Amino acid sequence: MSKKDLLSKFKTKTKEITVKAWDDEIVEIRELTVSESNDIQALMLKDSTSQDLADGKVNVSIGKFEEAKTRAVSMALVNPKLSEAEINSMGSGAKDGINEIYEAIGAINEPKK
């Protein structure tokens, strides 16, 4: 496989999703790049030591998880494009929709059944 073929095969995908918690609003998301995914995982695992990970333990604080989720949603939203600060400024009623978007980001690459 050539470099061009490989890069083309794994080009980031976009998808429109319906956010039920936001009165069925349609938003466009994209999958995260390898680098972005690594950054999100590193943020989530920030409280885990290398020994924890070697022992199969993962320490994730709720605060770091929520921060990582907000960052992932901000990175993945194509339309509307929202910054982390804008997401954080939204009323708490937006949280269920943010969770839906976060779950959709993880599912964007799952094979269709």
Overview of the structural elements:
With 113 residues, the chain is an alpha+beta fold. The protein has one domain (13-105): rbstp2171. 50% of the residues lie in helices and 13% in strands. Strands 1-2-3 form a three-stranded antiparallel sheet. The longest helix is centred in the middle third of the chain and has 15 residues, at 62-76. It starts with a helix and ends in a 6-residue tail after the last helix.
Record the SSE blueprint.
Elements: H1 3-9, E1 14-19, E2 25-30, H2 34-44, H3 50-54, H4 62-76, E3 77-79, H5 84-89, H6 95-107
Antiparallel strand pairs: 1-2, 2-3
Number of helices: 6
Quote the distance from N terminus to C terminus: 27 Å
Sequence of secondary-structure elements: HEEHHHEHH
Please give the radius of gyration in angstroms: 16 Å
Mean pLDDT rating: 87
Percent in helix? 40-55%
How many domain regions? 1
Low-confidence stretches: none
Class based on secondary structure composition and strand pairing: alpha+beta
Q: Largest sheet, order of strands side by side? A: 1-2-3
Tell me the CATH architecture.
2-Layer Sandwich
What is the β-strand count? Answer: 3
Largest sheet: 3 strands, antiparallel
Shape: flat
Name of the level-1 CATH class: Alpha Beta
CATH third-level topology = rbstp2171
Strand share of the residues?
Answer: 5-15%
